[in-house]
Design a protein that fits this description.
Number of strands: 10
Strand content: 15-25%
CATH topology of the largest domain: Rossmann fold
CATH architecture of the largest domain: 3-Layer(aba) Sandwich
Order of helices and strands: EHEHEHEHEHHEHHEHEHHEHE
Shape: globular
Bound molecules: D-glutamic acid
Number of domains: 2
Length: 275
């Protein structure tokens, strides 16, 4: 990497990783971004390690081939199941979402007891629990598979979603975790539910958004690679260039993606990854 703007590749199973891209754009506007959404093969959250690792490595290679100098694995499931495999296959630095999320939980939790919600695959991998235990925290993980389709339906403030979230969180904060004081959002879709989860979660609980913590981890990483200099600072003042790649319908990516990113999406290219 040289002393100039960097190109960051962001990978997700679909649209949800746009919550991570949103956090990155807010914190690091002086970079350019390539976003890859594997919309033809989502959801990853119900798939096996082998399948997720194969898909994620293909996407990582695609982003590298298109100029990504740093890869952000925005998908919690891909990070939890395949981060080591992606790192081994990539030729550029790779940042996942689990470690930054666990680090943020460790810094906000006072009693070192936290609840993590995510997809079935993320929870079964226990990646979050391991990362939290390594920092001296106890974690209870809870799979919330119905939340992803409800968010994709746009039901982020819907009574049905609120009821579903209440059932999941009641179970998550049971079994000796009534006193847990942090809730980690271990899935790309959950930041959209933050206002509702704030109402549904016990009042004393801090909500940890791994999209935000990941953006901070990427910023810290870039600082070590791209030291400040007047010339480099000048280059980084330009607006970020964004390119999107989707393996399914470009039109659908644009339509759904705008909700996750919070503004209009242009320049989506269809990608056909051969099996
Ligand atoms: N991106 C996935 C995650 O963060 C959720 C959607 C999916 O299951 O593919 O775990």
């Amino acid at each position: 990497m040289t002393l100039r703007r960097s190109t960051i590749g962001v990978f997700d199973s679909g649209f949800g990783g746009l919550t991570v891209l949103k956090a990155l754009l807010e914190l690091i506007p002086g970079a350019d971004y390539l976003y890859f959404g594997d919309t033809a093969r989502l959801p990853y959250g119900s798939k096996s390690v082998e399948t997720v690792a194969r898909y994620a490595v293909e996407a990582a290679h695609y982003l590298e081939a298109h100029g990504a100098e740093l890869l952000v694995i925005a998908c919690n499931t891909a990070t939890a199941l395949a981060l080591d495999r992606i790192k081994a296959a990539a030729h550029v630095p790779v940042v996942g979402v689990v470690e930054p999320g666990a680090e943020a939980a460790a810094s906000v939790s006072k009693n070192k007891r936290v609840v993590v919600i995510g997809t079935e695959a993320t929870v079964s991998s226990h990646a979050y629990r391991k990362a939290l235990e390594a920092r001296g925290l106890d974690a209870q993980e809870k799979a919330c598979p119905l939340l992803v389709p409800l968010v994709e339906e746009g039901w982020v403030e819907h009574a049905v979603t609120e009821q579903v979230a209440r059932i999941y969180l009641d179970e998550a904060f049971a079994h000796g975790f009534h006193d847990a004081d942090a809730l980690v959002l271990g899935c790309t879709h959950y930041p959209l539910l933050k206002p509702m989860l704030r109402r549904v979660a016990p009042a004393h609980v801090s909500i940890v958004d791994s999209a935000e913590s990941t953006a901070h981890a990427v910023a810290a990483h870039l600082q070590t690679l791209l030291p400040a200099s007047p010339a480099a600072d000048e280059e980084r003042r330009a607006l970020p260039r964004l390119k999107f790649f989707a393996t399914d319908s470009v039109e659908k990516f644009r339509r759904l993606g705008e909700r996750f990113l919070g503004h209009t999406i242009e320049g989506v290219q269809h990608v056909d990854l051969k099996e």
